[in-house]
Automatic annotation (TrEMBL):
Reaction(s) this enzyme catalyzes, per UniProt: L-seryl-[protein] + ATP = O-phospho-L-seryl-[protein] + ADP + H(+); L-threonyl-[protein] + ATP = O-phospho-L-threonyl-[protein] + ADP + H(+)
Protein name as it appears in the record: Receptor-like serine/threonine-protein kinase
Highest classification ranks of the organism: Eukaryota, Viridiplantae, Streptophyta, Embryophyta, Tracheophyta
Membrane topology: Single-pass type I membrane protein
Transmembrane segments: 460-483
Enzyme class: transferase
InterPro entries in the cross-refs: Bulb-type_lectin_dom, Bulb-type_lectin_dom_sf, Kinase-like_dom_sf, Pan_app, Prot_kinase_dom, Protein_kinase_ATP_BS, S_locus_glycoprot_dom, Ser/Thr_kinase_AS
Any one Gene Ontology cellular component term annotated for this protein: membrane
Primary location class: membrane
SMART domains: B_lectin, PAN_AP, S_TKc
Length: 823
């Protein structure tokens, strides 16, 4: 057996050797990366870049078309063509050929009848030694001679200077200040037709550099459909997603006398990546993920993301808030009112907003102006094309300069570190709220500042007030005896919970909140304002006033019934509803006041706040939340789905026990069958709820999982779901402990039990955020796993991270009552 098989093996090896040899020689012949003068490339032949061989040049037919084009594509993904030579002059049949013309001044593409379908004219003088080289960056360059230098100066021509619809690392967008030429990317007309389509993306160079997407009009010109925030020195502000990829693909803006351009690089070993604009006007940053066999393009950024990205969505002086979908995305900046209410009613914001109180600024009398600035925080700055920019001055000087110039309506720092100065003198357009946004300082009349308003009232009303005062002294004596008792009954909430939830009159609510005074505001969300209420005995309550604009009619009608349900829910880990007010149009809920604020303040706050939650405490909080949710799901006859679990809805009492708030109220905002609006908190909503509106107990499990992972990592998952892929990566590396918030001390090396519990907890978090609802455990299973070190745990499945789930169009941030702390 053995002796007969040996010769065969030799033969086999020999055959293999020849096979290998012929493969190598053919590789050397067929897959060159250079084309020299005198050689040619015909349809069917290719150039492949050296190194990793990532890019291939050759002939192709796009989509369903049978026409032939010369293009360059990604070798791993041959239908991803990022550069096309003859975009609008296709070749019929397979007769195309690429070669240098005879005198060596052009690289030309000829068809079967030797017509020139495309050419790169690179030299006026003959370049006898012209060479075209497909570099390993994907750049097709022409040099004179074979010296292999990568310096752009050595190139007579390069494809990177003539982009199609794609920006690769090393390419740029912007303007050449010498000759006025622009580098931009232009979408294909359709998947079957690479000729230039309607959308073009470039960098504006008036004002601060901003990336803008133009919709090109048929007869020339066009309009902006989407812009990023200005470059802030490190990234484009309106694109917080950059945090996901800027390490791998560092961005840069070059502003010199010769050019103002934007580009990015890829660090060595980075994934293949591209930025592309497609024929629907969608801009995508994608990276090639070859994990799991086939490989695919993963989206890292996609814009426009939501209605607020539409240019000037809310008109001049409007502010777009993508998380306020229940009412409408648009509102006016503080100090401004809707210019045309009837247009707004029909959801047309193009008229924008108008200033309420005239500015006190008359040219020539600037030194004495009483105008002041109000900061609008966390926004994408307005269009800067008409703004004036001075990078050389400080914010303080900027403010002075704005105040001194009557035409200045707002200013802002130009870069992220607070330096530089942008001054706007006409319309403020295209302002939206955005994660990691900048601060805009809006010039307003003195009357817009509450304190001054009050003092003016006092001045006018002084004589009246004096007589009122005398009267009230007289009345007060009587009242002291009689009213006091009555007042106690009115506004003090009984300590004994058995007495149930009370109804408050609006007068009472006003009296404990100083008539909803601005200094009593402790939180604001899309659907409500939260005030600190002080009862006459000095005890504090949290007063949550639901925004009427956000309430559905059904919600208003069902309010009392929902309150009754909420009042019936009693658990150590639920925030107890003390009272409510249901008068006229007002819908108000009154809760116990929690000194320690919400989990949000502690896990995402400054490091001193974070430090107050040590690891054991965090684990206990997670357990407490889980128990509260189990009670909602299983504790009463009817299971209650919270629908909106998130750190801002979890308050902490004096002993750091978590109290879940806002259970039940979400329902009040959900439009009935016909309505479109869903209550969706970005980053916390499960995929099936976000995409299809399917609501079940498992939606809460998903949100709980995100809250758990955020609590341990101190990182917001956010609308881009940035946290989940990170946890998954650590899981695959077997390094879960690296997830822990780095701003607080790691468990000591001898705290093995704690480390074990933390890892187990993260594992449970991953099980809760499984894509498919049926793969997630129930909340009581979660509690079982959290409370026992020995219970069995399944392995989580790899999430697919559906990109649609990251960019829903229907979105609102329900309440978030305590998420924005204004105190
Ligand atoms: C392309 O090159 C081949 C030889 O390599 C030659 O036979 C052919 O004629 C050339 N085609 C053109 C159009 O120059
Ligand atoms: C190309 O190089 C040759 C000599 O190597 C030189 O004679 C010719 O002028 C060069 N052409 C250009 C356009 O640089
Ligand atoms: C354009 O890109 C968007 C976002 O990636 C995608 O949803 C859409 O299908 C694309 N359109 C075409 C025609 O490829
Ligand atoms: C919105 O209102 C403006 C006038 O302010 C009008 O010109 C425009 O046509 C309106 N747009 C729509 C879609 O109705
Ligand atoms: C006010 O600012 C505008 C725009 O920056 C500028 O054109 C104008 O000269 C300034 N006026 C004064 C009085 O400085
Ligand atoms: C800039 O100024 C021009 C001319 O005054 C005006 O038509 C345009 O609307 C302004 N653009 C912005 C963004 O304010």
């Amino acid at each position: 057996m053995r002796s007969t098989s040996q010769p065969n093996l030799h033969l086999l090896l020999l055959g293999f050797f020849f096979l290998l040899l012929s493969f190598l020689t053919s590789a050397a012949a067929g897959v060159a990366d250079k084309l020299e003068k005198g050689q040619n490339i015909t349809d069917g032949q290719t150039l492949v870049s050296s190194g990793a061989g990532s890019y291939t040049l050759g002939f192709f037919s796009p989509g369903k078309s049978t026409k032939r084009y010369l293009g360059i594509w990604f070798t791993v993904s041959s239908d991803t063509v990022y550069w096309v030579a003859n975009r609008d002059r296709p070749i019929d049949g397979n007769s195309g050929v690429l070669l240098f013309n005879d005198d060596g001044t052009q690289l030309v593409l000829l068809d079967g009848t030797r017509r020139t379908m495309w050419s790169a004219i690179f030299s006026a003088a003959p370049a006898s030694a012209a060479v075209a080289h497909l570099r390993d960056s994907g750049n097709l360059v022409v040099r004179n001679g074979s010296s292999d230098v990568a310096a752009a100066a050595a190139y007579l021509w390069q494809s990177f200077d003539h982009p199609s619809d794609t920006l690769l690392p090393g390419m740029k967008m912007g303007k050449n200040m010498w000759d006025g030429k622009e580098w931009s990317i232009t979408a294909w007309r359709s998947p079957d037709d690479p000729s230039p389509g309607d959308y073009r993306r470039t960098l504006t160079t008036a004002g601060l550099p901003e990336l803008v997407l133009w919709q090109v009009a048929a007869g020339g010109g066009g309009k902006i459909v989407y812009r990023t925030d200005p470059w802030n020195g490190r990234f484009f502000n309106g694109v917080p997603e950059v945090a996901r990829y800027s390490n791998e693909f560092p961005l840069h803006v070059t502003a010199t006398a010769t050019e103002v351009t934007y580009g990015y690089e890829a660090v060595p070993g980075a994934q293949l990546t591209r930025v592309v604009v497609n024929q629907t006007g969608s801009v995508d940053r994608l990276a090639w993920d070859d994990a799991g066999g086939g490989g695919s393009w993963q989206s890292y950024f996609h814009g426009p993301r939501d209605p607020c990205d539409a240019y000037a969505a809310c008109g001049p002086f409007g502010l777009c808030d993508a998380e306020a979908a229940a009412s409408w995305f648009c509102r006016c900046l503080h100090g401004f009112s809707v210019a045309s209410p009837s247009e707004w009613a029909s959801r047309n914001a193009s008229g924008g907003c108008r200033r309420d109180a005239a500015l006190d600024c008359v040219a020539g009398r600037t030194a004495t102006t009483t105008d002041r600035f109000r900061v609008v925080r966390g926004v994408k700055l307005p269009d800067t094309r008409n703004a004036s920019v001075d990078m050389g001055i400080t914010a303080e000087e900027c403010k002075r300069r704005c105040l001194a110039n009557c035409s200045c309506v707002a200013y802002a720092a130009a870069d992220i570190d607070g330096g530089g100065c942008v001054i706007w003198t006409d319309g403020i357009v295209d302002v939206r709220l955005v994660d990691r946004g900048q601060d805009l300082y809006l010039r307003l009349a003195k009357a817009e500042f509450a304190k001054n308003k009050r003092s003016r009232v006092v001045r006018i009303a002084a004589p009246v007030a004096a007589s009122v005062a005398i009267l009230s002294i007289i009345f007060g004596v009587i009242c002291n005896v009689w009213c006091r008792k009555k007042r106690r009954i009115l506004d003090i909430i009984p300590e004994n919970p058995a007495m149930g939830v009370r109804s408050f009159s609006l007068t009472t609510v006003k009296s404990i909140t100083e008539n909803f005074s601005e200094n009593r505001v402790i939180g604001e969300g899309g659907f409500s304002m939260v005030y600190k209420g002080v009862q006459s005995d000095g005890k504090m309550v949290a007063v949550k006033r639901l925004k009427q604009s956000a309430l559905t009619n059904k919600g208003k009608k069902d309010f009392a019934r929902e309150v009754a349900v909420m009042a019936g829910l009693r658990h150590n880990n639920l925030l107890h509803l003390l009272a409510y007010c249901n008068e006229g149009d007002e819908r108000i809920l009154i809760y116990a006041y929690m000194n320690n604020k919400s989990l949000y303040n502690h896990i995402f706050g400054p490091s001193t706040d974070r430090a107050s939650l040590h690891w054991r405490r965090r684990l206990e909080i997670i357990q407490g939340i889980a128990k509260g949710v189990v009670y909602l799901h299983e504790g009463t006859d009817n299971s209650v789905i919270h629908r909106d679990l998130k750190p801002g809805n979890i308050l902490l009492d004096d002993e750091w026990k978590p109290k879940i708030a806002d259970f039940g109220t979400a329902k009040l905002f959900v439009a009935d069958e016909s309505g479109q609006t869903l209550v969706v908190s970005q980053g916390y909503a499960s995929p099936e709820y976000q995409l299809r509106g399917e609501i079940s107990l498992k939606c809460d499990v998903y949100s709980f999982g995100v809250v758990l992972l955020e609590t341990l990592s101190g990182v917001r998952n956010g609308s881009m779901q940035t946290l989940l892929p990170q946890v998954w990566r650590l899981w695959e590396q077997g390094n879960l402990i690296d997830l822990l918030d780095r701003t607080i001390a790691r468990p000591a090396s001898d705290e093995t039990e704690l480390v074990y519990d933390l890892e187990r907890c993260i594992h449970i978090g991953l099980l809760c955020v499984q894509d498919k609802a049926e793969d997630r455990p129930t909340m009581s299973e979660v509690v079982a796993m959290l409370t026992s070190r020995t219970s069995q745990m399944e392995q989580p499945r790899r999430p697919t991270l559906d990109s649609r789930a990251m960019h829903p169009l229907r979105q609102t941030d329900i309440m978030g009552t305590t998420t924005i702390d204004l105190t």
